[in-house]
């Protein structure tokens, strides 16, 4: 799968998916595929995204989206456009490199 894999965790509520997809669109992200699940009132969704031209997503856009979503965790799980499969968590200010 090309693009960036984002994992979202949040308290489930009416309109959550609509809000998230609107925010992605407003930030010029194109959802290529999604896995949506809810268990015990908690949503755990995975989105595979690119920018609207199909190019890799800039991490600045992910940071912007994080600021726009309340009580929600958004993590980059995989980014196929990075040669070393770097996965960044700006919430904690840590850069993880997966060499597998």
UniProtKB/TrEMBL annotation:
InterPro entries registered for this protein in UniProt: ACR1-12, ACT-like_dom_sf, ACT_dom
Positions of the ACT domain: 5-84
GO MF terms held by the record: amino acid binding
Keywords linked to the UniProt accession: Repeat
Gene3D superfamilies xref list: 3.30.70.260
Domain of life, per lineage: Eukaryota
Function: Binds amino acids.
Stored PANTHER family: ACT DOMAIN-CONTAINING PROTEIN ACR4-RELATED, ACT DOMAIN-CONTAINING PROTEIN ACR6
Protein name: ACT domain-containing protein ACR
Lineage: Eukaryota, Viridiplantae, Streptophyta, Embryophyta, Tracheophyta
